[in-house]
Fold these 2 entries.
Entry 1:
Amino acid sequence: MSLLDRLGALAEARHELLEGGVDDPFGVPVEKLCSATEAVIGGRRVVMAGTNNYLGLTFDPGCIQAAHDALDEAGTGTTGSRMANGTYAPHMALERELADFYECRAGIVFSAGYLANLGMITALIGPGDVAMIDADCHASIYDGCRLSGADILRFRHNDTESLEKRLARLRDRNSRTLVMVEGIYSMLGDVAPLAEIVEVTKRHGCSLMVDEAHSLGVLGATGRGLAEETGTASEVDFIVGTFSKSLGSVGGFCVSPHPELELVRYGSRPFIFTASPAPTVVASTREALRVLRSRPELRTRLWENARRLYSRLEELGYSLGPDVSPVVAVRFRTPHEALTFWHGLVGHGVYVNLMLPPATPGGQSLIRCSVSAAHTPDQMDKICEAFSALRP
Amino acid sequence: MKTYDEILERLFIHLRPLAPPTIEVAEDTDLIGTLGLDSTTVINIVLEIEDEFDLSVPLNALADVKTPGQLASLVHRIVEDG
């Protein structure tokens, strides 16, 4: 078998999915962005309801202006890693601002959310240690664990009893165990039972990392995420997050009450061997963080929209994820059924995400919507009407 | 203490409902090539086995597992190591 033959399996899977001549739903080119919630796809204007742009800040005038100014002042890119020539004063300012926001002692910025998980996990655990992960964790957590060389154990999704049993079996390895969960899970939009997870993890003497990628700007009194919402922030050892959702840019971060986080800079290969975030990215992210902190009304609007979509789809009889959140996932019986529905939504002027196995938990076929604070009442009407018109 | 055969029998119970009707699941059946299971399904079966036998199977150890027999051997080794 040649190296390229490996790709044959992908070609076969693609062919099977697209049988019947339907268009490929993956990698659909967005021809023009009109706003945080509208774009042109296939020559027609659609409402974007699958962007994870929870606060709608990609088109915030202040964020755009900050990026423009940084472009003029510092150029298009850093052309270097943080350890070489790629640490600019604004990178360090962003790290301080994140640590301040989370009331943590240290913060570190990565060039992507994916790299934040890879970088943190590989810095914290290695061969002989244990990575204990929720079965539905994101691919970046799985990949980080694989790269670390630690023993990877999984517990059933959001099941504290399953976690408890597995930690009990570890006995004397507990102090070398990193438990990893997410705030809001990206596929079904369900929320981790974090208070219980913290209790079990700490009772067994393990460390805890929470990925707040989908909960930053969404949960908590000040938008810090699920740890804040559940009053457990002081007991979480590491909070990881991304700039590519609520903060509207690209990049990742980790904050921690442990000052040792600073040392990750010297031992994390995904941090060391990557060019640092471009000045425009850092500038718009810093401004977005300021907006997130100063405009709680965005969170209020986001939740109004989330509740509205979830309850309307429930009313229409769709099978949804278990929790109301800005990620609203609709379950379908087969990949083909989900694909047909996805095309139907685009036909009605609504763009969402098609999520198919093996990327989905339990091999489910999903249509995943994510709502934004920037969706207007009219846009929410349009999304709800499209689902109503296509009801099976 | 569970024997290799007992573990294999439990695996068959999990695998048979997932196999195509024309395929008889055996010790050396290819889990992915013949049964058509994806890697996610295989690691979910491992979750079931972990709970049944009260043990932990590191995901890393599954990389070389291609058949029910190999999975049973792995689980049996973990049982023996206590």
Entry 2:
Amino acid sequence: MKNFSEFLAMGGYAVYVWSAYGLTLVVLGWNALAPGRRERALERQLAARPERRSA
Amino acid sequence: MSALAAAACVLHRDLQRARRRLGDLAQPLVFFTVVVFVFPIAIGPNAEVLRNLLPAILWVSALLALVLTLPEVFAADYADGSLELLILSPHPLPLLVLAKALAQWITGVLPLIAMSALLGGVLGLDFSTWVAVELGLLLGTPVLCLVGCLASALAVGVRGGPLLLALITLPLYIPVLIFGTSAARNASLALPVDAEMLFLAGLSVLALTLTPFGIAAALRARLA
Amino acid sequence: MFERFHQYAAPMHFHRLSRKLSPWLFGISAVLFVAGLVGGLILAPADYQQGESFRIIYVHVPSAWLSMFCYMVMASAGAAGLIWKVKMGDIMARACAPLGASFTFVALATGSLWGKPMWGTWWVWDARLTSELILLFLYLGYIALQSAIEDRRAAARAGAVLAVVGVVNIPIIHYSVEWWSTLHQGATVTKFDKPSIDVSMLIPLLLMALAFQVFFFASLLVRARCEILEFEQHTAWVRDYLRGRHKA
């Protein structure tokens, strides 16, 4: 088993490997959180509409 | 009135309309010429390089000029309400739509091909390459025209017309571009071009059979 | 029993099911991600040829697979909405698009980051990468078309036609790009995946693929809920639901 600093260095490819994983994390994180935020904002916005009176 | 007669009517009407506005037809040709001449200016005066790139330049410029004419395909009919009449007519919509695409090909694409033939000759394409480019355009432009009409039907009356249409159609145009330019490259190396031409012809036949239904579906999706 | 599934074609029931399911799916995908990452980053041995950089495979390949899967889902859902007028079809198709574009972007960017140490350039005219780029353009065109049309129902139907056209074209595009690429790359064959892969490297890959897959469904469910609210905002059930949620 390697030690932690070797793990971080990724055989010299650290920049590429960790950028790739970081980018993936950011994109997946955005896809996990943004829809939820939008849903809550939508619900608040729609709930604040004045009630329509039906004839 | 039979379905074919109705289609002929649609074709005739579009051709008449184009004939009354010949100036509009000239615009894509001018654009095409300008773009073809802009490339060499950007690339530099190396005659060898330019001769090698000329087929690709002709193809790309033709594609761009074609894409820019797409918003107009259904725009006039949409504006005066005849598009809805076409959709509601008892005749099969795919056939009518095919007539419109044919009109577009005759008035919009054929002049472009003629211009590319002229420019190709003037700018020094050798004969076999020139034939490959022109034949490729003849066999490949039906697909481009039909798929373009499909995109145009999807984006009828929508803002941002030409740019949106370019974004939608250019990825779909890539196979035709690949085979067209590859044929030209092979011709310049005195290699056979049968495979590419057959593929282009095959794509055109496929498009001819499928896209009219797609265009009809697109029109109904937008306007029904 | 089929009747039970049938009801979820209606936005109201789907919305309820989605609210119950999506937290679980996010949880399951998180577990799978941890398992896959441990397997891929720590347990799997370094590659003989590529060293540690091959580990990018664990995010690159699953996102490429998901980008294709997402397009299939988008086109199928759109077709269902177009042909059989299934409302959830329109909704799901619209929800898929940003997700699919995200996966495609990740596949391209990680592919590029993998290619740079291997082949020295950020962009390789590899058939798969080029096809993936065209797929991104297809997604962007779909999104642009949908946002340009104001009526949501018409936008969904137009998008469905475009997505179906895209699905028919994807094999053609892929074949022609591959043809183009092998013709002009010749000897420099790119091998983003190897013909035989060791089991210790394969299992984390499958785990990550599964993690991505479950994540896809989880995120899709939440996005679908947003679309449902937008599509159905004038219905009685939405009004009742909102009243229940936001006792002002």
